[in-house]
Amino acid sequence: MAENQITVKKQQELQQQYTNYKNSLQQLAQRIGDVEQEAEEHKLVLDTLQPLPKDRKCFRMINGVLVERTVKDVTPALVTNSEGLKKVLEELVKQYKRQQDDMEKWKKKNNIQVVQQ
Questions:
Q1: How is the chain split among helix, strand and coil, in percent rounded to 5?
Q2: Tell me: the pLDDT tens digits for 59-107?
Q3: Contact 28, 92 (CB under 8 A)
Q4: Are 28 and 96 in contact (CB under 8 A)?
Q5: Long-range contacts of 20-28, Cβ-Cβ distance < 8 Å, separation of 24 or more
Q6: CA atoms within 13 A on the CB side of 113
Q7: Are 55 and 71 in contact (CB under 8 A)?
Q8: ∠84-89-91 over CA atoms, to 5°?
Q9: CA 12/CA 10 separation, integer angstroms
Q10: CB 71 within 8 A of CB 58
Q11: Per-residue pLDDT for 116 more than 70?
């Protein structure tokens, strides 16, 4: 009887760990998607501004406030932000792969076989 309770408790712990792994992977995937979308928006804006004259007026949203600037003023900030987003995206992808590898090692170590994914 006591041995049966131990195995049930062990199963519950393993199930909880598996759920934690899946949730953290899902959260990372969501963040990767968000950063990809933001990087794509930056690229679209840069592509739109590139052929325009440098002294042309444009508007930029800064902390919820729409600010009037020139293309010459906005472009360097957009390039910097875009490069930063690319670095963040690379780091998130590395983190996701590392987490996925950890999960696979954990599954092998504990002899976990997923019935339904």
A1: 75, 10, 15
A2: 999 899 999 999 999 999 999 999 999 999 999 999 999 999 999 999 9
A3: yes
A4: yes
A5: 21/99, 21/102, 21/103, 21/106, 22/103, 24/99, 25/96, 25/99, 25/100, 25/103, 28/92, 28/95, 28/96, 28/99
A6: 1
A7: yes
A8: 100
A9: 5
A10: yes
A11: yes
